[in-house]
Amino acid sequence: MNNLLDVLLLGNNEDRHARLADTLSRLGFSIRVSPDLPSFYENYFRQPSPLVVLNAPLPDIHNAAVRLRASDRGVGIVAVAAFPDSDSRVRTLLCGADACLAADVDGLELAAALQALLRRGASPDAGEAAAEAKDEGQAAGPWRLANKGWTLVAPSGHELGLTTGERDFLCRLARAPDRKVSRDAFGEHAEDGDAPGTRLRFLDVMVSRLRRKAAAHAMMLPIRAVHGWGYMFAADIVLMPGRRKPPTKPARTRKKDRRRSVARP
Fold first, then answer.
1. Percent of the chain with pLDDT strictly greater than 70
2. 173 & 76 share domain
């Protein structure tokens, strides 16, 4: 089995799936898309994914769910379709799907469903990782944001690579007074086209995924939700300065220096 955040998606709506893949990618998931069942089966059995999204006609979803479930009882299967009634959803679940979502589901809801499956399907070494994470929380020293903020380093030395959103989130906490930032402050920096409410939901999903990603690397993140307000980093965290390049002289200054060196006897 590969990275827990690998997702294989069955579907041929390029524009819609591009939008879903963009949202999931921003949350740290790795997405592969197969347009039809033959390519889907080929991709899955060549490189199995722990999470699968089936966005296709119901007969194809049922066939794929039955085959995948027979092959791997632990795979997480989310079916996305225009289910006409409860009977069709029941039939889909009985075929092997873990969740049924409407055809117009957005990326955040899909990400939440995938995360729910990850919470339920603990890996065999989850107990060992949890024990290491507990020791992590007792280690002395500050947390560090190294590599210009792209790498989170725990007191024990464990390292975690960050996505753009995760880096931005942790850097803001590191720079904030008392390491606290309100959710509204994050909403004010919504990307073009993103409503503040959408950005806040995206933030909550990202934080949940970041905690779980850190736990998989034996790191217990001291991120706390301040009820009704925002988030705080409940430990010392230091934003390490990046390496500075030596200042470059302006072009005119370099030309003058060359002229002077030529003029000297």
1. 76
2. no
